[in-house]
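Student: Send me a single protein entry containing the residue sequence and its fold in token form, directly below this note:

Tutor:
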Amino acid sequence: IYTLSLHDALPIFGRASVGAKVAGVLSILAGGAFAKGGIDRALNIEQAEFKLKQMGMNVESVMASCNTAVTGTAFALASAATSASMLGSSGVQAGEQMTRSLQASSGIAAMAGRSMEDVSRVFSKVAAQGKVQGDEMMQLSEIGINAFDALAKHLGMTQSEVRELVSKGKVDFQTFSDAMYATFGEAAYGSAKDRRASCRERV
């Protein structure tokens, strides 16, 4: 692949001022980076779909869940697709379970300022184990997410009671995912709206 350096590209702009030449070159380079990013995202989606197909999952259904989880948020479809392939490999089923897990992951990611894939790894670990343990609760706590409080509100219990259930391995993946969805499932949509409003205020 031929790469265009700043030195090589400046003559392309002929008699234009140095400032205009540099601006033109930067525009070209930025366009190239944008195109590369688009290609990378497309490849990530293709790879995720391949993994889902190999796992025998309904790819169309899973991608519909991905679209639902990221439409109106700051997250890309490629991030959701990669997350879905991780969740699928851990036993999360296509359909509502997948959709809610992805929405919960995107909401937590938006709240914590992390990637959707990072949060989905925690969900995948819980799904693979079939239950949530202290390690996963600690991982969420370290990024500013009080999962104990979310579970307590969802179950109508105190945090102390939830801690005891978690320590005994009695909180299964479905309960964990439902609690995270109930608390954080809409957060990514609100975060995207806040960003757009902030951008408009700066204009």
Remarks:
- The mean pLDDT is 83.
